[in-house]
Amino acid sequence: MSTLERVFGFQQLRPGQERVVTAVLAGRSAAAIFPTGSGKSLCYQLPALHLPHLTLVVSPLLALMQDQLAFLHSRGISAASIDSAQSREDASAVMTRAKSGELKILMISVERLKNERFRNFIAQVPISLLVIDEAHCISEWGHNFRPDYLKLPDYQRQLGIPQVLLLTATATPPVIADMQQKFAIAADDVVTTGFYRANLNLLVEPVSGADKQRRLEQWLGAKAGQPSIVYVTQQKTAEQVAARLSQRGIAASAYHAGMPHEAREAIQRQFMAGQINCIVATIAFGMGIDKADIRNVLHFDLPKSIENYSQEIGRAGRDGQPSDCLVLANRDSLNVLENFVYGDTPELDGIRCVLDELLNSSQSGEWELMLNQLSEQSNIRQLPLKTLLVQLELRGIIAPRYAYFAEYRFKFLLGPEALLEKFEGERRQFVEALVATSQRARTWCTVDFDQLYQQHQAERGRVIKALDYFQEKGWIELESKQMTEVYALLDPGFDPVALSGELHGYFSQQEASEIRRIHAMLALFASEQCLSQRLAAYFGDANAPQQCGHCSVCRGQVAQLPAPPALPPLRQQDVHSLCDGFVRKHQELKGSAPSAECLTRFLCGISVPLFTKLKARQLGGFAALEDYPYAEVRSWLAGQQG
After folding, report:
1. Does domain 200-332+513-538 have CATH number 3.40.50.620?
2. pLDDT tens per residue, range 481-503
């Protein structure tokens, strides 16, 4: 009996799966671009059982890892993850299993590879295959670009991993080309199966904002008891909509990233088990959800992009039965979506601040930074700040050397004397020095790397290895914090004025491209052509039928999206009463007035690091103009200041 049948219970692979598995088992790198729910995971799970060494899976989301691990364990496959929710003991136990060769599959987040302790460890483990889940994240043209993903080709080389498998459900042709080039995958080993799914009815219904809740209740009321997901943009909307549905006798639970982990887990379990049939969720819900009988996916608010839409509706009808995907469409929440984009564009001054930091602190040729500190200093959100650092790498100005925790501290679980008894000779002297130089508070001892090096020539790497070993043996409890990233400065001769302008231009281009992405989605929903065909064409699938016969357009209903409610003209607003309190606080903290960009963010209610420091949310005027388009508020303010 084949492994496929014995372990996974399948008689045969689907055609796309077969091509990918054959390529991987023949020792080649490959990419699987399959729609949500069509078995991408099996493309690595099956080969992993036949490959000689470990399969290392990089995944962007904890929830995805947990679901896949539960599946692997249910099939008796030796798999584990190392993640931020684990205790140190659990992580150590997983590392021991990986080192001994007992594990077949290890799942991690991409950020884990920045951790020096993890890299030291994984470099000692032979790896057969690197799997990159949600691989579109590696492309700057992808819809949820993760800067750290750009480093994966380097990590593959450094760790000497012979082959790679890329998995994604939502890659447009330019993104596929980008992924293929970055990992040198042969064109024949990029396997794309069609995006068209005949059992999904794509429906777009124009509904005014005021009427959405009533229409939602009417729709779900007619489908009582059917498993349904309602997607919303904001956490507060999830709470409100779920509460109103429940009042109307439609039992619904909210689900979003702001809820306690245990509560989210419980809701997900109940939904999977059929104890709850309706979830009102932000996009935090559904990644890795493999519930076959979801009959309805409703978008109460507009999705963030066509890619997000495709991923979210992909959770419906995995059992092949007809399922409805309804968008209650209008332009009311357009500003909210656009504001997320505008808030991620750094100001020119912020970029200049980062470049000045780089030049000031790099006499040694090395630049050390803590992301949260630099984010506050430059007033750039952490994700765009990571993108900025990656852009500096791509321009050959800096290169990542390593990341380390600035602070290591430990607590004795065994008396210091008993610890010393375990060693003799030079090793004992080393441990004595480590104990003697560590600064002891009541229970915790903080390691002093500088003193250890000056007095005993003890290298940092050796100290960390020793601490890890003590912890493994249960002699100490170890804690590390203050993640510090170290970059080499390769080109100190750059012109900070010209470069900050160039980088600001890059971010402005990204901003424009994201805004276009939102408008492409609106154009899809208002399309006069078959929606299934338009969606498939966006992802480069030319094989979908010209008319599916079961979307709202094919049923004769073209969506004319209602305009948002009219707002009073901005010229009627009093800029001073809205902004004076904020301007005063900014002046006190920074010694200067805020820029027009900064004021726009304040009035549109967009959070940036500086606002936390200024307690901006508590000031009158914060988010006072959140219903107006950002670009309009920005030009109105520029006119006021001019």
Report:
1. no
2. 888 888 889 999 999 999 999 99
